[in-house]
């Protein structure tokens, strides 16, 4: 049997395509070298292999796909429309966020904890609610500028211990009976001195003012801010007008006494005095800050 | 991190598919000899590959997997056209090829014409082995036929091509007797 018959066409193809084991391939190499016909067959198969690769090395460029036509244009159009809508929405949203509104004021932010239906009320109403919340310690969600007050409320229990708990019900009645549109006067009285005659005169003026508003059927709010030496007016141990202040608070539910927490802290720090306030006197973070806030809110400022 | 790996794998798979596009097109064109049809087949193949990319467990087997999809798309295409014919016996008519006898002077056209004359089953085997260098085992997976069938089809295809091409090429070489057999290289 000749050597050509020993190797089938399938074997020669597998040899050219490198599909046989190395050992078998090396043996075939030796025999192919000794047989011209086999050698020629292998060469022809390799030539065919190369020809096929040559024939399809550079296939013709595919025609322009239909995808680059109307469908792509439609997709691009949809993308452009979607992008435009998103851009417009973004601009509108950005404008809305930047616009100042009553609902975003700090005072309005505190209102929902007491009366959510009054969130959109005017600032002065929201302010009234805030005051009520402070008096009754219900400021659950304080506004940024109210945070110190809330924290002060805790400090008050440690340092400035009220003689008795503030009457919650009358204060709430004040807040509820004061409709936002009917508050016609907002007066802040600043007391920073401890002159007894001066304080007496100031209390007379305040009472006269409240009487005047009541007589003329005007709704008004009067807030007495005490700081510095004026704090003695509302301290249990030093106040010469404790009974009068309590009577005024009882008679006029639109009257508020607010003590400066900074002064209370300073007394505790520098003189070791644990301040105890009269019943119904609230604390505020800073007397000066309160004055500025109220003035910004349109209150009338009176300094004694 | 798993999400990041997922996106990276996805990007890598898309890049691999993009790189395989030219190879798929070359093989598809060698099967059908129609640029438009080849492009459609490749497009369909890549679409299916993207949709079924989760089925690919071993990234090393991506090439064989892609060409399997291409073979299926090709088979489905002819099934849609002629449902009653055995696709293994279909020969692309000589006139249907882009290259006709008029351009037979060029070797490329000759080879393409010869491959176009092969039965489709043989054409697929010889192009997968010669163009893409797939092993016989990989071709069995791609075309879903036994390895013996692959070897016999390849053998018959090359015998036919040798019969068609080599005499023509020898004749083509004789056409220019004036050319010297010994050329000065340098």
What this model shows, in words?
The complex is a heterodimer of chains A (304) and B (186). Chain A has 304 residues and is an alpha/beta fold. Helices cover 54% and strands 10% of the residues of chain A. Chain A is rod-shaped and about 135 Å long. The N and C termini of chain A lie far apart (134 Å). Residues 103-181 of chain A have low confidence and may be disordered. Chain B is mainly α and 186 residues long. Chain B has one domain (13-174): Up-down Bundle (Butyryl-CoA Dehydrogenase, subunit A, domain 3), CATH 1.20.140. Helices cover 68% and strands 0% of the residues of chain B. Chain B is built from 7 helices and no strands. Chain B has helices at 2-32, 35-51, 62-81, 107-117, 120-130, 136-143, 147-174. The longest helix of chain B is centred in the first third of the chain and has 31 residues, at 2-32. The chains are: A alpha/beta (304), B mainly alpha (186).
Summarize the structure.
With 304 residues, chain A is an alpha/beta fold. Chain A has 13 helices and five strands.
User: Which homologous superfamily in CATH is the superfamily of chain B?
Assistant: PhyR, sigma-like (SL) domain
Unreliable runs of chain B: 100-104
Element pattern of chain B in H and E? HHHHHHH
Classify the helix fraction of chain A into a percent range: 40-55%
SS field, number of helical segments of chain B: 7
Category by helix and strand content of chain A: alpha/beta
Please name the CATH architecture of the largest domain in chain A: 3-Layer(aba) Sandwich
- Poorly predicted regions of chain A are 103-181
Average pLDDT for all residues of chain A? 72
């Amino acid at each position: 049997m000749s050597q050509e018959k020993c190797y089938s066409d399938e074997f020669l193809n597998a040899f050219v395509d490198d599909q046989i084991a190395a050992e078998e391939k090396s043996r075939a190499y030796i025999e192919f070298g000794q047989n011209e016909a086999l050698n020629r067959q292998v060469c022809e198969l390799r030539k065919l292999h190369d020809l096929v690769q040559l024939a399809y090395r550079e296939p013709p460029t595919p025609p322009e796909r239909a995808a680059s036509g109307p469908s792509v244009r439609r997709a691009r159009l949809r993308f452009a429309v979607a992008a435009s809508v998103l851009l417009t929405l973004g601009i509108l949203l950005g404008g809305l966020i930047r616009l100042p509104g009553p609902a975003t004021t700090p005072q309005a932010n505190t209102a929902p904890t007491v009366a959510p239906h009054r969130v959109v009320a005017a600032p002065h109403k929201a302010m009234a609610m805030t005051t009520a919340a402070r008096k009754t310690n219900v400021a659950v969600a304080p506004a940024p500028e109210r945070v110190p007050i809330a924290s002060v409320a805790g400090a008050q229990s440690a340092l400035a211990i009220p003689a008795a708990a503030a009457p919650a019900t009358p204060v709430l009645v004040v807040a509820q009976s004061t409709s936002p549109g009917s508050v016609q006067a907002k007066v802040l009285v600043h007391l920073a001195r401890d002159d007894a005659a001066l304080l007496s005169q100031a209390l007379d003026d305040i009472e006269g003012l409240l009487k005047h508003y009541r007589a003329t059927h005007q709704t008004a709010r009067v807030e007495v801010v005490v700081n510095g030496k004026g704090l003695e007016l509302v301290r249990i141990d030093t106040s010469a007008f404790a009974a009068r202040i309590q009577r005024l608070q009882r008679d006029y539910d639109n009257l508020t006494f607010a003590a400066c927490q900074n002064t209370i802290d300073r007394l505790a720090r520098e003189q070791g005095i644990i301040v105890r306030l009269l019943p119904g006197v609230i604390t505020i973070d800073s007397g000066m800050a309160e004055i500025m806030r109220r003035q910004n809110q349109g209150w009338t400022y009176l300094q004694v | 991190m798993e999400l990041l790996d997922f996106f990276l794998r996805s990007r890598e798979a898309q890049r691999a598919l993009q790189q395989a596009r030219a190879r798929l097109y070359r093989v598809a064109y060698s099967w059908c000899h129609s640029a438009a049809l080849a492009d459609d087949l490749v497009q369909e193949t890549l679409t299916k590959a993207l949709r079924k990319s989760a089925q690919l467990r071993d990234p090393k087997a991506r090439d064989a997997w892609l060409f399997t999809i291409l073979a299926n798309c090709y088979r489905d295409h002819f099934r849609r056209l002629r449902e009653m014919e055995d696709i293994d016996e279909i020969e692309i008519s000589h006139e249907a090829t882009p290259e006709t006898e008029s351009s037979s002077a060029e070797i490329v056209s000759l080879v393409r014409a010869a491959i176009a004359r092969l039965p489709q089953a043989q054409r697929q085997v010889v192009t997968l082995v010669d163009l893409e260098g797939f092993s016989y085992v990989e071709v069995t997976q791609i075309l879903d036929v036994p390895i013996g069938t692959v070897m016999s089809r390849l053998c018959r295809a090359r015998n036919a091509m040798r019969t068609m091409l080599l005499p023509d090429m020898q004749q083509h070489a004789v056409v220019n007797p004036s050319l010297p057999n010994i050329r000065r290289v340098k």
